[in-house]
Specification:
The complex is a heterodimer. Chain A contains twelve helices and no strands. By secondary structure, chain A is an all-alpha fold. In chain B, helix 3 packs parallel to helix 8. The longest helix of chain B has 27 residues. The chains are: A mainly alpha, B mainly alpha.
């Protein structure tokens, strides 16, 4: 069965092997990785804007909170980067999916663990950048309490899973179209503006806030970031929304996967 | 010179003919740019919603900057990204050899080979935004003309920076993403440079000259331009262009092709 391992111990063994293999692979391309980290400076740009704006205008948060919020956004964003749709699209278009289908493990796990292990390879670069900004803005320094930090990490992990499932669902469209990544690109556009990357939801107009909270977007960035910096957050609602959206996309994903495999002809096979 | 014009026409007419095969893509691109536009406006609105203003920039004036940024985005999607992001692949696969053998400047070939109409919606939306804000501000028609030279200087500066980054692939081969860093930083051009804290302003003026790409053209249009900035933009673009040429010549000394 698809997303489940036959038995737990074998599952752990497979996970450990995949993790270490992909970690070694990712560390090999350190320079490339560093550039990917640096290309995610978007929240840091908005941090400057909001920090300055909060000094002059009337906003829901003060300057230091804005800085802490955007540093948390940067952190969450880096740890939830997903690119599975591009890889999957290439595998389908070039027929490289075929050999993976023969293996006694669902191909999704390769993608999943390559993403997870990349997080560990990425960590040092993120830490350096966050450190640099804490040094530039000492008033924002102040590490989250251990409880907050653990809750924040759990929320980040959940956000990563949700984002992965959603993107992997888009990737399924590769069975029918050659450019499944176009869907992701369009989704990403909305994600940029509604996930809290350009501003915390607290400064959105009330009506927009209410609507956005029904979509999956704020749970991908805003909610985990808020938990990390210890802003009051409705955790139960956040958790329910993440799990709900996750299950919805998971069901859709498995259905598309089964339909898609029938459709799949395997280029060159 | 005439030969280059002829070649350019051939390049772009074939490129457009090829792209027109994918008409649906154009619709997708147009819808995406519209979405991006709405998002950008929303982002700007969040700042102005409560009565705050970027120091020295009214809502309409900030729209002009956003318009210039949208046009810049369109320009990079039509010309820069499709061409310059390919340099990496040419080096990796060794097909750069064929380019070097042609009796034409290799930098010219690499920089102009294709043209992607995908960015045109952005160029148009940017123009509309500037025209709308300009009308609201009661700008004289001639004022728009004043914005054109600095906008062109901005295009040239951006091209030169992007090209130099692409050229580093001669040494590092696999750096598809180094231009993504530049692109990420360019996002700062959405807003007038005065909206940033001092450290950011210094960085975006002297390290990555984002200020010259969108704020300076907008100021020229709004009649707030200073000759110093305009001269700076001109000097910077020419300097960067010349640097990119030298850099390419220098980089080619280290090119060893893919299999030798």
């Amino acid at each position: 069965m698809a997303f489940r391992f036959p038995n737990l111990r074998r599952g752990f063994a497979i996970a450990r092997v995949l993790l270490s293999v992909y970690y070694a692979y990712m560390v090999e391309y350190r320079a490339e990785l560093m550039f990917w980290v640096l290309s995610g400076t978007f929240p840091l740009i908005f941090m400057g804007l909001w920090a300055k704006a909060a000094e002059g205008g009337q906003f829901a948060l003060d300057s230091a909170t804005f800085i802490r919020y955007f540093l948390a956004v940067f952190w969450v964003r880096q740890l939830t980067v997903v690119w599975v749709v591009w890889e999957f699209e290439r595998e389908v278009n070039e027929g490289k999916l075929s050999p993976f289908l023969l293996q006694p493990i669902d191909p999704v796990w390769r993608h999943f663990f390559s993403h997870v292990s990349e997080r560990f390879a990425r960590l040092p670069f993120i830490a350096v950048l966050v450190g640099l900004f804490l040094w530039l803005y000492p008033q924002a320094a102040g590490l989250p309490s251990p409880g907050q930090f653990i809750l924040g990490l759990i929320a980040t992990a959940l956000a990563f899973c949700l984002r992965f499932i959603i993107q992997y669902t888009f990737a399924m469209m590769a069975f029918w179209t050659e450019r499944a990544s176009a869907i992701e690109q369009f989704w990403y556009l909305i994600y940029t503006f509604l996930s809290g990357m350009i501003a915390p939801l607290a400064v959105f107009p009330e009506a927009v806030q209410k609507v956005v909270l029904w979509t999956p977007f704020p749970y991908l960035i805003y909610v985990p970031a808020n938990i990390l910096i210890g802003q009051p957050t409705d955790m139960l609602q956040g958790l329910l929304a993440m799990v709900g959206w996750g299950l919805l996309f998971l069901a859709l994903n498995r259905w598309l996967w089964r339909q898609g495999l029938r459709q799949y002809s395997g280029m060159g096979a | 010179m005439q030969r280059y014009w002829r070649v350019l026409k051939l390049f772009w007419s074939t490129a457009i003919a090829a792209e027109l095969e994918y008409r649906l893509n154009f619709v997708i691109a147009a819808v995406s740019s519209l979405g991006g536009l709405i998002g950008s406006l929303f982002g700007l609105f969040l700042f102005y919603r409560t009565g705050y203003e970027f120091p020295g920039w009214s809502w309409e004036e900030a729209l002009v900057v956003l318009g210039a940024f949208t046009m810049l985005q369109g320009f990079s999607a039509t010309v820069l990204a499709p061409n310059l992001n390919r340099i990496v692949r040419q080096v990796e696969q060794g097909t750069l050899d064929f380019v070097l053998l042609k009796p034409i400047s290799s930098q010219f070939w690499l920089s102009t080979r294709t043209f992607s109409p995908w960015g045109l919606p952005d160029l148009i939306f940017g123009l509309i935004m500037i025209a709308y804000a300009g009308t609201r501000l009661g700008l004289h028609p001639a004022a728009y003309g004043l914005g054109i030279p600095p906008l062109l200087f901005g295009f040239i500066s951006l091209y030169s920076l992007w090209f130099m980054l692409g050229a580093t692939s001669i040494w590092f081969v696999k750096i598809y993403n180094v231009t993504e860093v530049l692109r990420g930083l360019l996002e700062a051009g959405r807003f007038p440079i005065g909206a940033y804290p001092v450290a950011y302003r210094i960085f975006f003026t002297f390290v990555i000259p984002v200020a010259f790409l969108t704020t300076v053209p907008a100021q020229a249009m709004l009649g707030q331009g200073h000759w110093g900035w305009l001269l700076g933009a001109a000097g910077l673009s020419l300097l960067l262009l010349q640097l990119s040429r030298w850099f390419w010549q220098f980089a080619l000394l280290f090119y060893t092709s893919a299999s030798s």
